[in-house]
Write a structure and sequence with these properties.
Elements: E1 6-11, E2 22-27, E3 33-37, E4 40-44, E5 49-52, E6 65-68, E7 73-77, E8 83-87, E9 90-94, E10 102-105, E11 108-112, E12 125-130, E13 133-137, E14 142-146, E15 152-155, E16 160-161, E17 164-165, E18 167-170, E19 173-177, E20 183-188, E21 191-197, H1 199-202, E22 207-211, E23 216-221, E24 224-231, E25 234-242, E26 251-257, E27 262-267, E28 272-277, E29 281-283, E30 297-301, E31 304-307, E32 311-314, E33 317-321, E34 332-334, E35 340-343, E36 347-351, E37 358-362, E38 366-374, E39 377-384, E40 394-400, E41 408-415, E42 418-423, E43 428-433, E44 437-441, E45 447-449, E46 458-463, E47 469-473, E48 478-482, E49 485-488, E50 500-505, E51 510-515, E52 518-523, H2 524-532, E53 541-543, E54 563-564, E55 570-574, E56 577-581, E57 595-601, E58 604-607, E59 611-613, E60 620-626, E61 638-642, E62 651-652, E63 658-662, E64 667-676, E65 683-692, H3 700-791, H4 797-819, H5 821-829, E66 839-840, H6 841-858, E67 862-866, E68 872-873, H7 877-893, E69 899-907, E70 910-916, H8 924-935, H9 944-947, H10 950-961, ...
Parallel strand pairs: 11-12, 59-65, 67-69
Antiparallel strand pairs: 1-28, 2-3, 3-4, 4-5, 6-7, 7-8, 8-9, 10-11, 12-13, 13-14, 14-15, 16-17, 18-19, 19-20, 20-21, 22-23, 23-24, 24-25, 26-27, 27-28, 29-56, 30-31, 31-32, 32-33, 34-35, 35-36, 36-37, 38-39, 39-40, 40-41, 42-43, 43-44, 44-45, 46-47, 47-48, 48-49, 50-51, 51-52, 52-53, 54-55, ...
Helix pairs in contact: 3-4, 3-5, 4-6, 6-7, 7-10
Length: about 1000
């Protein structure tokens, strides 16, 4: 069988079918192809056959399909009164009910007719179902029964003529071929609605193939198959294919898949033929004496190319021949004026396209590898062949003034054989060789090696519309050149793209890459994403021989390895013909859906939905991924993983579409599958739950039960042990108690004594510090006054009296102060806070004022008591007295010729006592230190040697009465001490 632009696949009992007679063909709503045979029903998914033939029937012979594909209810007839229903991708026996193939009318039996296969012989009645009624067909009459009006219409039409059917259907229309008048009668709802002529349909040698469920009608005449469509009130026939060396009568069923452009032919003896209509056109040389091996090709017109043989081809074949003699197949180019340059071993020939004349140009031991014209300059890339036996080839980049290749402007030499070059910009040329990639400066003649220490056999250099530079290589893949760095693109799954020849870019942004094993298609945007992120996955779409090539091996190694014509067609040279195709008409077929519903559990088939239940005795599980897909299987990308396993990775599913696991432990496992469905890397996902019940001793409740038993055992064991020990301990306790009572009494007394001693020591420490601090100022004053007397040789009686009076008063004050030492002792030795008394704050301040008046007067300082005379306090008098004493003492010491003011105010429940002086003032470091110390007095380190004892004592005493102090530096000088006191009675 030969058919231009088609690819044939034949299936029979040798490669998948259970029997060689294919009665009917249909495609269900899920995309699976179904066949009926005389040995079962077959499901085909594009790669393999699934056979169902073990139905509990007396025979596994099946005939035609009927029913409704859209409703997922497809039937086929088996044993009498038992049908097979194809539903949800699986067949099963079903009662006839409303889908009976037998009806009775006027006690006459009628059999269902829904396709050409139904009519067998005369003497049998048939019925045909349509949307609004039913037709009854006898030998000589056609009767229509309307299901809406219940009326019957009799038509004078003979469905059979010479034991052959003259009636067929397309959807709800019936067509009758009048064997006498050759008219084709159209019938709808029991009425004749038209006549038309069609010599092919009325030809007695034409076989009509029709199927109501498929909504398809075909005519076959002398090996040619036509598809019929109802247009303009008649059937119009379109030729699909002409078959050769095959008898028409051998065919029993036809189905055409419009989406995939595949024609399915069922034979009575030869099994199944699948014809694929191809979008690629392969053109070969017409002479059988010449091999159709092509390399360099060049656009010749808007729809044709010229080869190195001088032959001009379009997708229709050879157009003309210029007869280029003894030309090299690896070089072909064009001058600026359109003349064609082709190559010989020792010279260049320039062919004039207008006149047809040729001119020979000698290149003096230089073999031209590539050529282009830029800015009225002629750039040529040569291989130096003066020393062909040398260890290395030498490359020459030459720039000429004209096409004579004589007037040389510049030559640049480099090692290794050159292959391809392009101009990057006004200064730089990019040159590829069999070993590396160079960037050459035309200004400085400097050569930059872009591949580093890596050898790279460059095949082609292509600059795409967006300005990106792509490099194809021999055996090392292809690369993107970015900022003088090459970025390697990933391989396809089979590694075929490692030897890529060229790439052509279409208007949708796809690259078409020819290789030594197939043609690959990929989005440029996906490649650029990979260049940015190496984790981005690239999926190439592969076209192979079944797409329309004579061979999968394309050719490169020439200066031009592919062309884009002005009519939009791409042309690629191959080892067996030129490949023409329009990239915008070539579809990428991806699977639309997949199904995980079948499994083998220890080699036993099992069907399931969403969940599969296994036992722990199961050793092996094979999960099948069913994918209805009828194009190149290389483009089906399915990956799977068990997601509940740590570090689970997506694994590629092979062409058998099976995922196997062994010895899964009990529990719930999730099997995830994803499938590629678009050129831009989009996947669809599905998951299946694998449930393996545990044994009773592996269940959670059993473990709880065991744990409970163990705990109970431990409980009783411990309880018995405790009881035993308690008896022993009771005996020992009586002995020990008598002895330990004496010891505990002694220890208790020692602890009390220890506490008392500790408190006394702490009291003594603090008392000594307090005495030392508080008597320092009066004693120092007396000493200074006495010194003044001793230093004065002459002084009058009045002066002496004044000094002695000061000494007297200070001594008296010191005496009075020592009388208060008992108060300090009481502060630290008794719980003063537990005892409360009401007293006047004014009187307390006044007592302290009198104590320091003489000292202040000496410094010419005035102490003012502005406290409210009516204010009564519950605060511990002794503690507050000690606090005020220290603060006034500090103010008196550091204030000269100033005023010390003591005043009060009330804020909410607190008494505010403020002491303000005009002394030298505290510096910021001291204020910060005391403020921080007040907030954390238990943990902060006390700087006694640096800052003294006074304010440390104040902070400790404030803590005892729950008060706070705020230090403020006055302007222009002096310090304010703001005491915040809680005036509550301590119960």
């Amino acid at each position: 069988m030969k058919g231009q632009g088609t690819h044939l696949q034949v299936y029979n009992t040798d490669n998948g079918l259970p029997q060689n007679s294919v009665k009917d063909i249909i495609k269900d709503k899920y995309g699976f192809i179904w066949l009926t045979t005389e040995n079962g029903i077959v499901r085909y998914d594009g790669s393999s056959f699934l056979i169902y033939k073990n139905f509990p029937l007396n025979s596994q012979r099946f005939t035609h399909f009927y029913g409704n594909v859209e409703n997922d209810s497809i039937f086929t007839t088996g044993e009498y009164e038992k049908n097979i229903l194809l539903h949800d991708k699986f067949p099963k026996i079903t009662p006839i009910k409303n889908h009976s193939t037998v009806v009775y009318r006027n006690k006459k039996k009628y059999l269902l007719s829904c396709s050409h296969y139904s009519f067998a012989s005369t003497g049998i009645g048939f019925f045909m179902n349509v949307a609004n009624g039913r037709y009854f067909l006898l030998d000589n009459v056609l009767i229509y029964s309307d299901s809406r009006s219940k009326r019957e219409q009799r038509l004078n039409i003979k469905p059979l003529y010479k034991n052959a059917s003259t009636i067929f259907a397309l959807n709800d229309l019936l067509f009758h071929v009048d064997p006498i008048t050759k008219n084709i009668i159209t019938i709808k709802d029991g009425k004749i609605i038209g006549f038309f002529k069609n010599s092919l349909l009325s030809d007695h040698k034409t076989r009509i193939f029709w199927s109501q469920i498929n909504h398809q009608l075909f005519a076959m005449n002398r090996g040619t198959i036509y598809i019929c469509q109802y247009q303009d009130n008649q059937l119009k026939l379109s030729k699909l294919i002409t078959l050769q060396d095959v008898k028409d009568e051998n065919f029993m069923s036809i189905y055409f898949d419009k989406k995939y452009k595949k024609l399915y032919l069922g034979s009575s003896i030869d099994g199944l033929r699948i014809l694929s209509f191809q979008d690629f056109t392969t053109v070969k040389r017409p002479s059988p004496n010449h091999e159709s091996v092509f390399y360099s090709i060049l656009p010749y017109s808007d729809s044709s190319v010229i080869t190195t043989f001088g032959e001009v081809y379009s997708h229709n074949g050879l157009l003309e021949n210029k007869n280029f003699k003894n030309s090299s197949p690896y070089f072909l180019d064009r001058e600026k004026n359109g003349n064609i340059i082709y190559l010989h071993e020792d010279h260049i020939t320039v062919y004039s396209k207008t006149s047809g004349t040729e001119k020979i140009v000698q290149t003096k031991n230089l073999l031209l590898k590539d050529f282009f014209i830029s800015n009225h300059q002629y750039f040529a890339l040569f291989k130096d062949i003066k020393n062909p036996d040398g260890p290395e080839f030498n490359g020459v980049l030459a720039i000429y003034k004209d096409q004579t290749f004589n007037a040389v402007e510049k030559k640049i030499f480099f090692k290794s054989e050159p292959t391809k070059f392009i101009r990057l910009d006004q200064e730089y040329i990019l040159v590829g060789t069999v070993k590396c990639l160079y960037k050459i400066s035309l200004k400085t003649n400097k050569i930059y090696k872009l591949t580093g220490n890596k050898e790279l056999s460059v095949r082609n250099i292509i600059k795409t519309k967006d300005g990106n530079i792509w490099i194809t290589t021999l055996g090392q893949g292809f690369y993107l050149l970015k900022n003088d760095h090459i970025i390697k693109m990933p391989y396809d799954s089979d590694g075929n793209i490692s030897s890529s020849h060229t790439l052509l870019e279409d208007v949708k942004g796809f690259f078409w890459i020819s290789t030594n094993n197939g043609l690959y298609k990929v989005l440029e945007t996906e490649l650029l994403k990979y260049a940015q992120n190496k984790k981005h996955r690239i999926y190439y779409y592969r076209f192979s021989k079944d797409a329309g090539f004579n061979t999968n091996e394309f050719n490169g190694g020439s200066n031009i390895a592919g062309n884009q014509l002005k009519n939009g067609e791409f042309v690629l040279p191959s080892l067996n013909g030129l490949i023409f195709f329009d990239p915008l008409k070539i579809k990428s077929f991806y699977p639309e859906n997949f199904y995980i519903e079948r499994a083998l559990v220890d080699n036993k088939e099992k069907n399931f939905k969403e969940k599969i239940y296994l036992s722990q005795e199961s050793n092996r599980l094979d999960l099948f991924i069913d994918v209805p897909y009828y194009s190149n299987l290389d483009n089906v990308v399915i990956e799977a993983k068990l997601s509940d396993f740590p570090n689970a990775k997506w694994e590629n599913i092979g062409k058998d579409r099976k995922f196997s696991v062994s010895n899964l432990g009990y529990g719930h496992h999730t099997f995830m599958v994803r499938m590629l469905v678009s050129d831009d890397g989009k996947f669809i996902y599905k998951k299946i739950k694998i449930i393996i019940p545990p044994y009773f001793y592996q269940t959670f409740w059993f473990k709880i039960f065991l744990t409970g038993l163990f705990c109970l055992f431990i409980y009783f064991l411990v309880k018995w042990r405790i009881s035993f020990l308690q008896k022993k301990n009771h005996e020992l306790e009586e002995i020990v108690n008598s002895r330990t009572k004496i010891l505990s009494d002694t220890v208790e007394k020692l602890e009390v004594t220890k506490g008392k001693l500790h408190k006394e020591i702490e009291q003594q420490k603090k008392l000594i510090g307090t005495i030392t601090h508080d008597i320092t100022t009066p004693v120092k004053f007396i000493a200074l006054t006495a010194k003044e007397i001793l230093d004065q040789e002459n002084f009058d009686e009045k002066r002496a009296g004044k000094i002695l009076n000061s000494i007297y008063k200070s001594s008296d004050q010191l005496y009075n102060f020592t009388m208060t030492l008992k108060e300090y002792a009481d502060i630290y030795s008794h719980h003063i806070l537990d005892k409360t008394e009401l007293y006047s704050l004014f009187q307390l301040i006044d007592e302290k004022k009198i104590l320091f008046d003489e000292i202040a007067e000496k410094n010419n300082t005035l102490i003012q008591n502005n406290v409210d005379e009516s204010l009564q306090l519950w605060i511990s008098k002794n503690i507050l007295s000690a606090i005020v004493h220290n603060l006034i003492d500090n103010s008196v010491k550091f204030t000269k010729n100033g005023t010390i003011t003591i005043e009060n105010s009330i804020e909410k429940e607190n008494i505010i006592l403020k002491i303000t002086d005009a002394g030298i003032g505290m510096d910021e470091k001291k204020i910060e230190y005391y403020t921080r110390l007040q907030d954390n007095i238990e943990n902060e380190k006390l700087l006694l040697q640096k800052y003294g004892m006074g304010l440390h004592l104040v902070l400790q005493l404030l803590q005892m009465i729950g008060g706070k102090i705020i230090f403020t530096k006055n302007e222009p000088q002096g310090t304010s001490f703001k005491l915040i006191l809680s005036n509550k009675k301590n119960e």
